[in-house]
Queue: 2 jobs
Job 1
Amino acid sequence: MSGRRVRLRRVYETPAPEDGTRVLADRLWPRGLSKEAARVDVWPKDLTPSTELRRWYHGPEGEFAEFRKRYEAELAGDAQRAALDEVRALAARGQVTLLTASKDLEHSHLAVLAELLK
C-alpha cells in the first residue's frame, strides 16, 4: 500500500474531498465540534491509546519514544489488531485520513498508526 493512502489531519480542519474515508482516532469526541461539521466516517475506539497511556504521555514524565513502545504494545491486543485490519482494508480501497484533536501530529498516536498501516 502506498503511503499516500493514509494522511493525518486535525479533526478541526475543514473536511476536504481528498480526505477519502475520515477516521477519528481519538477516544473522546473533540470539544466544540458537531458530528455534522466533523464528517467522521469511522470511529474505531479500539485504535486509540488507553486513558492511562494518554494521561501518562501528557504528564510530566511522558516522552514520545516510550509512548510509541507502550502504544504499540496496546495495539497488539485482539480488538486492536481487528480495528487496524479494518482501517488497512479501507486504505487498500482508497484514501484514508486519520483524524485527531491533537495539535502535534508528528508526535501523536496518529504518527504511530500511520506507520503501522503502511
Job 2
Amino acid sequence: MLSEFSLIDRFFASRARANTRRAALGIGDDCALIAPPVGEMLAISTDMLVEGRHFLPDVDPNALGHKTLAVNLSDLAAMGAAPLGFTLAFSLPKPREDWLAAFSAGLFELADRFGCELIGGDTTAGPLNLCVTVFGSVPQDAALRRDAAQPGDDIWVSGTPGDARAGLGVLRGEWQTHVADAAVFRRALERPEPRIALGLALRGVARAALDVSDGLAGDLLHILERSNVGARIDVDALPRSAALARLPLAVQRQCSLAGGDDYELCFTATPGARDAVEAAAQHAGVPVTRIGTITSLDPADPARAKPGIAWHDGTGAPLNLTLQGFDHFHAD
C-alpha cells in the first residue's frame, strides 16, 4: 500500500524534480524558492476544487488533473501573467494507484505545455479536495486589473461561454441534446482551456480583465464594482457554439450569461483599440467578440446610480433578466 511519501515521490515529486527550470529551489526542502524575472512582479492565485461542489465523483481523473491546474492558470491569463510554478495540496480518501497515475498525467500534461513547474505541496487522507496555488510574473505596469475599466470602453469576451454549464445540465438531466453536442459540452466542462496566450497578447491593449469562472453576469459585476462603472450588454451579440445554439433560447441565455466553469476572458478596451484587440486574438488563436459597452454612473438616475448591468437584445430593446453568477454557498 502506498504511504504518504511514496505517493508524493512516485506520482508528483520525481516528475517535478526532473522538470525544474524556473524555481531556484523546488520540491525537497521546507520551502521552495522562486523569483520573478527582473522588473516583474509575482502574480499569485489559489483555487480549491471540492468533490460534489466543483466536480462529479465519477469524473475522469485525467480530466480532473487537467482542470485542477487549468482553473488557476486561467487566473494568470486574466492578469496578463506568464506561468512560473505551482503548489498542489490535496486530501484523498484512498491512495489508488490507477487514479493517481491518471490524475498526475492530466496535471503534468497541462503544466508542461505552459512551462509551469510543480514546486511543492502537501497531501493527507480525507474527502477528495484539491487546492492549487499558482505563481506567475508580469511587468509592473502591464498587469490587467479589475479596477481599470472606463466609461466608453468596449466589453469583449473570448471563446463561447455557456458550453460548460450546458454540459452540467446534460449530466444532471436538466435538458437533452444530441450525443455529439453532449460530448462538446462535457469537454468544455471537464477540460477548460486557460487563455494564457490571449492574456499575454492583451498586455498594453486591454484595460480591465478577469476570467469567467462563475458566470458572466456575476463576474462582469466584479469589474463594474471595482471600477465604479456600469455596463450595457447586447445579449444577442454573445457568441454561442453551434452545439449551444441548438438548445432552446432560454437555455442558451441561462448557460451563456449565468453559467460557470467557462474560464474564458472578459475584458474591456478603448474603442480605438479594436484593431489591436483583434490582432491580439488572432496572434493567440482565440476568437473574441465585442458584446457591450462600459457606461458611467449617474446618481440622479436610480437605474444608473450604482454598478450594474443593463441587458438589451440585438434591436436595442431592454430585457428584464434576473441573473446572478455561481455562489459557492448558495449553489444548487
